[in-house]
Amino acid sequence: MEFAKRLQPLQSNVFAEMDKAKAKALAAGRQLIDLSLGSADLPAASHVVDVIAQSLYDHSTHGYLLFHGTQAFRQAAAQWYEQKFGIAVDPETEVLPLIGSQEGTAHLPLAVLNPGDFALLLDPGYPSHAGGVYLASGQIYPMPLRAENDFLPVFADIPAPVLAQARMMVLSYPHNPTSAIAPFSFFKEAVAFCQQHNLILVHDFPYVDLVFEENGNQGLGEDKADKGETENMFDRFSVSSPIRQSLVPSILQADPEKTVSIEFFTLSKSYNMGGFRIGYAIGNPELINALRQVKAAVDFNQYRGILNGAIAALVGPQDIVKASVDKFRQRRDAFVNALHSIDWHVPIPKATMYVWAKLPEPWSQNSMEFCTQLVEKTGVAVSPGAGFGKFGEGYVRFALVHEPPILETAVSRIAGLL
């Protein structure tokens, strides 16, 4: 049986190899501590779950949900964005519901790339960014992220022939896996570069809220938006605790006219709703419409009850956001201190739920070997840097998805291997 050539780049997956290694460790009786997946272990807020549960008994929510039926959610997303960043958003033409931000970054290349066109991607970077380009039969130019450049790409290093054939650039800050943040000046540079070279600028923004207070306010938005009035589920909640002004900038603050930019958001990280698969895009109306056309050919929308819960999350009490950030800060501090105590000195992450660690010898250029040995011998599973791209080699990513005592136990096991 023959399959499409576009599947060939998707066949090699170090994370699948790690799954095999984890299964082998479990079969050998190891007690697994899994720090390899960025899936938060924290629960969604009770008022969100209650709204979803109540929706189950409303038979009007049981049918297909088309675009018009998502109006209340789009209005909630627009209000949330305006309050956080101070940029006006039209919920009718500049917002699109998604099944997580990953759907958006994977499907957008189908709308903007012709076969052979280049996409400029961060390396290391989130694997689905590359997957979407391959499915669109595009080519990838990896923009190296190096510690000496604060894990920011250098646009001047992109070859002119690549730029001539490029159609889009994908950024994502705070960054997975390196946990780097980008200053507003960098976003201004990125917007100007994409305008100059006729590139679509994509910003994947799942960690908008997972930023630690000690970094100071990097964003520019002010709470200038009126709450306004909407109907149905949107009317049931008011912001009983204020939406936190962002500590990191939005790409649309650098491109307020939305000339070339689209930004992807998810409720997975800020509101612990990963399993509910709910996100959205905000940006240039032509890009939103193009992505909507692709989406219409693939699926409808989520169950309406999930959107009702998402509205409750966006416009209801925001305590859960602060509580989650505080929790991950405590975990970060405990884990980094434990690593330092065994002489594995890593930078203190400024954002995200990850620690990006340069490997010690003799594993400095074989992250996969380190990770497979670690899980087989100690039961601690982490992500090899090579799984995020060529320039991720020599690093591993730890996901802080357990409480401090378990994280400290993991480090004591790691010490045994080192």
Automatic annotation (TrEMBL):
- Which prosthetic group or cofactor does it need? pyridoxal 5'-phosphate
Query: What organism is this sequence from?
Result: Fischerella muscicola CCMEE 5323
What lineage does UniProt assign to this protein's organism?
A: Bacteria, Bacillati, Cyanobacteriota, Cyanophyceae, Nostocales
Q: Which UniProt keywords apply?
A: Aminotransferase, Transferase
Q: Where is the Aminotransferase class I/classII large domain?
A: 31-414
The name this protein carries in UniProt is: Succinyldiaminopimelate aminotransferase
PANTHER family for the chain = AMINO ACID AMINOTRANSFERASE, ASPARTATE TRANSAMINASE
Check the record and name the SUPFAM superfamilies matching this protein. PLP-dependent transferases
Q: Which residues cross the membrane?
A: none
Give the Enzyme Commission number.
Answer: 2.6.1.1
